[in-house]
Amino acid sequence: RDTAKNDNYKGLALLLYSVLLIGKGELEKAIEIIECMKDLEYRGSLGLIILTLRISRLFSLLIEFLRKEIVEKKYRKEVVQKVLSELTELSKDVPSYLKPLIEPHIAELYMLLGEYGKAEESLKKALKLAEEAKDQSLICQIYLKLARLYITMGNFKKAEDFAKKALKIAEELKNEFLIKEAKDLLERIRNG
Predict the structure, then answer these.
(1) Which residues contact residue 178 at a Cβ distance below 8 angstroms, ignoring those fewer than 6 apart?
(2) Rounded CA separation 188/180 (Å)
(3) How far apart are the first and last CA of the chain?
(4) pTM exceeding 0.85
(5) Residue 78: C-alpha distances to residues 45, 65, 81, 85, 113 (Å)
């Protein structure tokens, strides 16, 4: 029990250190620190918080890679594969309520790597989990991601179908952000 308590504190310290590294732009070092955390034994509510925060850090890394891809048009494939590997491994052990949140991020990494079939598989898995949880907002977001994926793949019919489904849910939720995103995607599809 003392080992688990100490591991909780070690995990918290490593997590904070990874945040500093991400802030300094040292993404590879941050990934190494986050990888060290997977061997620790977490217990209790603090352990659950640390595990959730560890996942959040990986999401931060994902967002950073996406930002670099969009803004700078550069990223290193092996680093993206490392984050993908870590997220995939982590998704095996997370509480069930976090799984539908992780899969879309895994799909985005597959898209960065040009592995569209695997991206589609991850999004469909996330959709199934979100439907089981009856999380309409998450279902809508996954529909939007599927629409973007199908646009990338050149399947505009499927892209339009998912964008329409997303718009319907977004309007039911009265979520202006999701409504705008769905309408923008539909306009993009129609304009080629």
Answers:
(1) 137, 140, 141, 144, 166, 169, 170
(2) 12
(3) 60
(4) no
(5) 34, 12, 5, 10, 10
